[in-house]
Amino acid sequence: MRVGVRVVELGWVEPGAALSAFAGEPWIAFADSGGDAAGERARWSFLCPWPVETLLCRDGGVWRNGEVVSGDVREHLREMRARICGDDISGLPFSGGVIGLASYEAGMRLEGVVSRHRAAGDLTAPELVAASYEEALVFDRLERRVWWVSGRGRGAPDLRVVAGGFGAVPWLSFRADMGRDAWLEAVREVVRFIGAGDIFQANLTMRWQAEVPVGFDDMAAYLALREGSPAPFGAYLRTPGFSLLSASVERFVSMAADGGIETRPIKGTAPSGASEAEAAGFAAALAADEKENAENLMITDLMRNDIGRVCEIGSVSVPQLCGVERFRHLHHLVSCVRGRLRGGLDAVDLLRATLPPGSVTGAPKRRAMEIIDALEGSARGAYCGSVFRIGRDGALDSSVVIRSISLVGRRLLVGAGGGITWLSDPEREYEEMMLKVAPLLDVFSGGC
Question: Catalytic annotation on 291?
Answer without folding.
Answer: no
